[in-house]
Amino acid sequence: MKPPGFSLPGYRLRKRAALIIFALLAVAAIAVNVKQSAVDAADEKADWLKAAQAGDPNPALNTPDLFNWQLFVQINQAATNQTKVGPKSVTTNNVLWETWANDPDTFPSSPDPTKCNVPNPSPVNCPVWPGTTTPKKVLRPSTQQLFRQQQRSLRISNQREVQQLQGKKLNAMAPQISVGGNEEVRRNFSSFNFIVSNALWYQQGLKAAFEKGVPLSFPIDAIEIKARWTPLANCQNTTYHCNYDANGNAFGLTALHIMSKAVPNWTWATWEYVGNPGRCDYIGCHDAFGMLAQFQNTQPNAQLNQPYPSPNNQLSPALLQMLGTIGPEWVNYRLKGSQIDFTDATGRATLLGNSVTEAGFVQTSSCMTCHAQASVDSTGLFNQTLGFTPGGQSTNGPLQPAWFYNTSSNPWTVTYFPIDFVWGIFDAQPAPGP
Q: Average pLDDT, stretch 52-58?
């Protein structure tokens, strides 16, 4: 039976009056963890946001490009925590978001909640917030692309059957991706703490959330990051934001997704390195704040995978002033676009995708529609049936009730319980026990 009071969380934009109230709270509460301590991450207020948006009761919806650039500038402040890595003992170049918890921190491969409620919880079995320590960068293959490539083989009658994926065994219930790739996912303390506090970091906890049936909603200051990197010879004389992985290998940042809970359906924005070939292919690039008026809408080239010249004199003075507060390399990144709804005013699906992270399906990509399908079944197993078409393209546009309910029953019964747009549950493993 449908759990009492169950509804899909945030799947339709709230009434405008409610949104205004909600966004006012968001403006006051979006926080970043400058000192990387749990207390500071929860309490710190972003004065830059309040000052820049004074007089606008709903900036995340009214001026999303400005809102997202402000977020970009804040989280790309240089971090105080750096460390020596690799055989050459090179010093990291972390910015704030690179010191947040990553997926392995949040979803341990051997989860055991019985070892977590003690004075010294096991770092192997329990989620660990980096705190004042400097976390080492661990890059992995893209779970999104691996899932897309193997979705047909994952659609199996016995969802606990072990599959082969790129030479490694993949448990269809909770994939563990091997180290050695070019992507990382990170989250601030607010998002991390919500996952841990609600026991969403292991399969049995997700199963309990399904059974409870209470809609989940992350705090309004929650932020999630996805970054993609490319190998470099070193970090000298590069126009990328450059940093080192745990082995001391140099990488340049090529793509960055930022999502924040400033509105019920989260905010969605993606950036690309200015030199990425094909960065505006298919859907163009759109930035109403960061570019001068005549350059705010770049149409896609007729020929794919070609350069999109964008010299710095095309950037707006307001953006250049903002970027002057962070490292000089950040002037070489361009906002591809912001997404604030499933459809536009005519009912057409809104699209947003990065030529790097969504390579192969950027022409149909919708960040919001994809992430809205983050859900689990009655066993706590993540939803493997949605996200991509049989041809490997992304689903987009409005959500369908049949994705979450058995609509043939009366009343409808829940088949997949939504986890408020957060696909990190892809990594949740079962804890030991009966």
A: 71
Closest CA to 27 of 17, 19, 35: 19
Which residues have C-beta within 8 Å of that of residue 103, sequence separation ≥ 6? 140, 184, 185, 424, 427
Amino acid at 75: I
Q: How far apart are CA 230 and CA 197, in angstroms?
A: 35
Q: Which two tokens stand for residue 343?
A: 């459809």
> 370 in helix, strand or coil?
helix
Q: What is the DSSP string of 185-205?
A: EEE-HHHHHHHHHTT-SBHHH
Residue 277's contacts (CB-CB under 8 Å, 6 or more residues apart) are 305, 306, 307
Least confident interval from 11-20, 115-124, 262-271, 408-417: 11-20
Say yes or no to pLDDT of 162 above 60: no
Q: How far is 10 from 131, CA to CA, in rounded Å?
A: 31
Q: Which residues pair with 101 in a beta bridge?
A: 187
Return the closest-CA partner of residue 421 out of 389, 393, 387. Answer: 387
Q: Which two tokens stand for residue 276?
A: 């990425």
Model-level pTM? 0.83
**Residue ranges covered by each domain of the chain:** 16-427
pLDDT one-digit tens code per residue, 299-323:
999 999 999 999 999 999 999 999 9
pLDDT at 45 > cutoff 50: no
Spatial separation of the C-alpha atoms in residues 276 and 355, rounded to whole Å:
8
In 3D space, the residue among 235, 234, 231, 239 whose CA is nearest the CA of residue 331 turns out to be 239
Write the CB contacts of 219 (distance below 8 Å, at least 6 apart in sequence).
29, 190, 191, 194, 261
Q: Which of 23, 5, 25, 27 is nearest to 14 (CA)?
A: 23
Beta bridge partners of 370: none
Bond prior to 411 in cis (omega within 30° of 0): yes
pLDDT digits (tens, 9 = 90+) for 215-237: 999 999 999 999 999 999 999 99
- Using an 8 Å Cβ cutoff, are 415 and 383 in contact? no
How many C-beta atoms lie closer than 10 Å to residue 42's C-beta?
A: 16
Cα-to-chain-centroid distance, residue 316: 27
Q: What are phi and psi of 421, to 5 degrees?
A: 75, 5
**Nearest-angstrom CA–CA distance, 327 and 333:** 12
Pair of tokens at residue 159: 């969802």
Pairing state between β 267-273 and 250-260: antiparallel
What is the C-alpha R_g of the chain?
A: 21
